[in-house]
Amino acid sequence: MRDNEVVTLGPEPLTFADVVKVARHGAPVRLTDEAVAAMARSRARVEELAESPTPHYGISTGFGALATRHIDPELRARLQRSLVRSHAAGSGPEVETEVVRAMMLLRLHTLATGHTGVRPATAQTLAGLLSAGITPIVHEYGSLGCSGDLAPLSHVALALTGEGPVRDRDGETKTAAEAMKAAGLEPVELAAKEGLALINGTDGMLGMLVLAIEDLTALLRTADVSAAMSVEALLGTDRVFAPELQALRPHPGQAASASNLRAMLRDSGIMESHRDDTCTRVQDAYSLRCAPQVAGAARDTVAHAATVAGRELASAVDNPVVLDDGRVESNGNFHGAPVGYVLDFLAIAVADVASMAERRTDRMLDVARSHGLPAFLADDPGVDSGHMIAQYTQAAIVSELKRLAVPASVDSIPSSAMQEDHVSMGWSAARKLRRSIDGLTRVLAIEILTAARAIELRAPLRPAPATAAVVAALRQETPGPGPDRFLAPEIDSAVHLVTDQTLLTAAQSQTGPLA
Question: Are residues 455 and 308 in the same domain?
Fold first, then answer.
């Protein structure tokens, strides 16, 4: 991304790249003239209804189970202020800045569609917070994923009014009023319907879904890199990855994964060393032979999730909404089920990819299954323990990932005096998926660290150019085989090299772009 590249928001759908630019890279935002005009039109309709003696939900009534009360005009500013203050009820650890910025951007996009009835000036102030790098402090707990991510978005709306804590561009904690004054922004005095429009969306869970798709796209390529290294280190065969075999089961993700494995193992001297009649094994273990089937299925799951996310990025989620013909209608589009389901689905795929990677690591450490490697890849087995406990760390993470794969979206808890009697728990699904992705990153890093050591212990046999490039990149940060040493920093270095895609880039320097 170029410095100061501005992301523009209008009624048209956001792109995945837009979300990543704003959330992760701090890009400023700007509302288009079309968006401002659309908001002005819908605002005029809301103000017309606000003057009507007929109650209209969200404009002249209470909220949720309190919607039966008609609110007098002189109390409506207080109504919106009270809504935001009371709903900013989050608790627990602080949510990551990138998640909050994604949530702010997605809420701003819904405002920009012109279907919520907020004043253009209110949306412009939210855009100002994003562009100034002011991030409201949002907490882990509070959203049930129905009526949107109410508590998280309320903390954002509270900051818009100049209340509550925020972090500035440098990460320093300030009051919202202090940060806004420093940025030349005026706090908003919320008018009819605006409080509700600012908090009634699935933007938190959707933001985390988009960021997860971005992360998993790279991590699943890295999973193919680590699998190829393990296949090579364990004297496995690449024949099972042949395109004609993969075509018999034409899943696109499987084909892509197998293609990556073939590219990674091309011209491997280690592979060539056991292609003759001296190799008596008929088949490799499932964790080697079926790598494309598992990583490929995970890819196809990500593709499905991306389809859902794309539809959500084209949505205007609010209740009630202002339609193009001027009608203001209640609806249930704030229910997070579509997003919650795919968040849970991705957590299942992540756990399974990690589980297979851990099984390959374990094979490299076991003299009964490693085909000639020293026990635990230790320098002097018995005196040294090698990577024995690195595999324990993997196993502990995989066990946690299996627990995190239990769906959140099936666990509805009624709320709001039974008015909101079925909720999505999509926010919870998103939060656990973020932990799952962190776990997968660590599991793959340990597999690569172990496989690199095993490949080096196969010397003088020559690895494939692609796997050799990964080993070389890893050795820029970690030493090669030798006596036991403090292992945790090496694992951390490998995690960093997976996260910033250094190892993936090294592989692609030899293979070209992986699928």
Answer: yes
Q: Say which of 57, 286, 341, 392 is annotated catalytic.
A: 57
pTM score: 0.95
Q: What residues make up the domain containing 79?
A: 7-201
Can you read off the two tokens belonging to residue 377? 């890849």
Tell me if 357 sits within 8 A of 223, measured CB to CB. yes
pLDDT of the residue at 4: 64
Tell me how far apart the alpha carbons of residues 263 and 197 are, in angstroms, rounded to a whole number: 50
Q: How far apart are CA 169 and CA 180, in angstroms?
A: 12
What span, in angstroms and rounded, lies between the C-alpha atoms of 59 and 70?
9
Coil/strand/helix, residue 116 = coil
Mean pLDDT of 54-73: 73
Q: Give 65's pLDDT tier (boundaries 50, 70, 90).
A: low
Of the candidates 136, 94, 111, 87, the one whose C-alpha atom is nearest the C-alpha of residue 32 is 111
Answer yes or no: 341 catalytic: no
Query: d(Cα 386, Cα 457) in Å, to the nearest integer?
Result: 12
Which H or E run contains 346? helix 337-365
Please give the Cα distance from 347 to 384 (Å, whole number).
36
Evaluate whether residue 115 is within a structural domain. yes
Is the same domain home to 33 and 134? yes
Q: How many domains is the chain partitioned into structurally?
A: 2
